[in-house]
Amino acid sequence: MVKNGRITVMVRPSKSSSSNNNIRRQRIHPTRPTSLYFDWSLKPMTIWLQLFGIQPPIINKDEKNHRFMLLIPVTIIFYLLTVGCNAFVMSQTKWIVETRKYTSITQDWNSIINQVNYCFLTTTTHSALVFASYFMSWNRLTDLLQRLEQCGQFDNSHYKKFRRIFQIGSCFVSIEIAIQLVETLIDRLWISGVVTSLPTPHVVFSALNVVSLIFPYLGSILFCSLGWMASVMFQIMAEEIDSAKLDSNDCCLMVTTSFIDGWRRRYFLIVEFVDEINRHFGFILLVITASEFVRMTNSSFHLLTEFLGQHWTFSTILVAVDYIKQTIGFCFLVYVPSRIYREANDVIRKLRVTEANDFSLQNQMRFLAEEMIHSLPSITPMGMIHVNLQLIPTLMGTTLTYLIILCQFQSLETIDNKT
User: Fold this and answer.
1) CA 176 to CA 126: how far, in whole Å?
2) What is the pLDDT of residue 382?
3) Of 7, 269, 367, 385, which sits most exposed with the smallest number of CB within 10 A?
4) Centroid of chain to Cα 276
5) In the predicted model, what is the mean pLDDT of residues 336-348?
6) pLDDT number for residue 6
7) With contact defined as beta carbons under 8 Å apart, do 95 and 199 qualify?
8) Strand pairing report for 2-3 and 6-9
9) Which of helix, strand or coil describes residue 254?
């Protein structure tokens, strides 16, 4: 029965209901037999990581060591490609500005900063992924996944749910590669006319430079997929606690100390898993956040000047589409940490409304809830910022401030030209 919105959990069932309790206990806190595992769930994303020379987080040590030597040549090729193309593009910054034929120095500098931001983003995120996969080897991350796997609290349906997360992430990688390919063909080869009017090195490097943009997306999507999986783990745990209540026949669940210890162990394992996600992806998130601010300011100013000057072309439309796409992607990136926090908080809320008629067990559950409150997971890249939905209005306000400053520079330059 439920009193005052709180779930009452009986401790000692009657003999007549012991068989029903055993069935319920197996459903609520079992050691679930399963033929699936985390490596299988992560497989859709690990394939993409390996294609671009990034060693994926794999629990199976033998498979990891076998693929290590095979991936090194691919890693070297893609890293040299990223660094080489970015170095070439930076050396051609003056030429790129001249070919775009902007009417003001403010627009020229805006274009230069955009190019520097692009090169910085792609080079640093690629370097961070290589460092995390080869030098850190995802060790703590995979160790925690293995410990969660060994808890025996996830069955085949859970592993299938985890796999769907990474399948969706893999689809987004495929879509992004297709979009970048189309934009390159249309903008750089057709609209700019580089095939006919520019030397071959410019054609090759301007096209290949787009390949490096896949690494920020790989890092972002891998972070979102792992973070979403962590939130689903909290969700599964909350459902398990929520199911600890009396049924219509007054057959009650026998809550024991081992149940509470299992909840405590699993909760803090998931929290530790989130902390490792933060440690491995902290630098990447910091770089992406800083780069996103520069990109939003740059693109907003570019679109505003094109709109006011009535110079809307197909290339401008591509910039607008890319602006919307990346803004939506960044919003989803900051939503994932907020979802992790919400689901963890939901576990605590459901634990608090669960009562046992044994004073000792009730105290244990109360102390566990207090422990959980002081250990709520969060994503704080290198301890500098909190990545959550509250970051969006801050970013928008800062972008608007710098956009106004750029418009003032543009207007002063226009007045000087007239005089």
Assistant:
1) 17
2) 81
3) 367
4) 13
5) 92
6) 41
7) no
8) antiparallel
9) coil
pLDDT tops 80 at residue 14: no
* Secondary structure class of 96 (helix, strand, coil): helix
Angle, helices 105-130/391-418, rounded to nearest 10 degrees: 150
Please give the average per-residue pLDDT across 353-381, as a whole number.
Answer: 80
Q: Which two tokens stand for residue 76?
A: 């070297």
3-class DSSP state for residue 354?
strand
The pair of three-digit structure tokens given for residue 417, joined into one six-digit string: 């030209």
The region, left, alpha or beta by phi > 0 then psi within -120 to 50, assigned to residue 4 is left
CA 414 centroid distance within chain: 43
How far is Cα 112 from Cα 48, in angstroms, rounded to an integer? 32
Q: What is the mean pLDDT of residues 44-58?
A: 88
Question: Are the CB atoms for 369 and 378 separated by under 8 Å?
Answer: no
The dihedral over CA atoms of 8, 10, 16, 19, expressed in degrees to the nearest 10, equals 90
Q: Give backbone dihedrals phi and psi of 2, rounded to 5 degrees, phi first.
A: -115, 125
**Cβ atoms within 10 Å, residue 298:** 23
| Count of beta carbons in the 10 Å neighbourhood of residue 80 | 10
Residues above pLDDT 70, as percent of the chain: 74
Give all strands of the β-sheet with 354-356 in edge-to-edge order: 2-3, 6-9, 354-356
Please spell the DSSP secondary structure of 291-316, one letter per residue: HHHHHHHHHHHHHHHHHHTT---HHH
Q: How confident is the model at residue 107 (pLDDT cuts 50, 70, 90)?
A: confident
pTM, two decimals, is: 0.82
Tokens of 306: 């094109």
Dihedral over alpha carbons 19, 22, 23, 25 (to 10 degrees): 150
Instruction: Kindly tell me the number of DSSP H helices and DSSP E strands found in the chain.
Output: 14, 3
Cα 311 to Cα 100: distance, rounded to the nearest angstrom = 13
Residue in this structure with the two tokens 């401008």, named with its chain if needed: 316
DSSP string, 2-62: EETTEEEE-SS--GGGHHHHHHHHHHHS-----S--HHHHHHHHHHHHHHTT-----S-HH
